[in-house]
Predict the 3D structure of the following.
Amino acid sequence: IRFNGTLDHPSIYRGPPSPEIDEAWQTIEDGEVMKISEEELIKSGFSTDSVKVPEELGGGYMASVEINHQLHCLNFLRKALHRDYYQFKTLEFTDHPQMVETHLNHCIEMLRQSLMCHSDVGVMPHRWVKNYPNPYPDFNVLHKCRSFDEVLQWTVDQQIPIMPPGYQLKPQEGEKIWDSPP
């Protein structure tokens, strides 16, 4: 896939805040909480002291995929860019100001780590462009991508069934309860 990196390329994910842009982001950001097997959990480098899904909801372990968190973070940064618009419309901004700042810094750090981990080495040639004194990078770079739609569908296929009204997920007997977030 060749990215369209043109500075003013129209996209449903960018521009001044609007219900259409918010809906587009909501569609790609909403990931399902899913269940994975003990084997998948261990293969992912985690121990079985993670949250267990009750048998009546299909068993396994509760999980989500990182792309959903990464898109949440990117969307949160987008909203912070337009904070006047989102201040009273978005749950993230209703926290104490210090918590909002902590959350934003968490998102920046998580995205930095992901970008550096994946270290995209796509080559961007530079071009001479009329009325620009310096060579200009061509951001329209070829990439080999996973199918986001297939990843999203996989999470939907693995999702924990909708819990009945009033159902409260609670630690099961013998489950570890952490003193603080990992």
Remarks:
- Residues 124 and 138 are 6 Å apart (CA to CA).
- The chain has six helices and four strands.
- The radius of gyration is 20 Å.
- The chain has a mean pLDDT of 93.
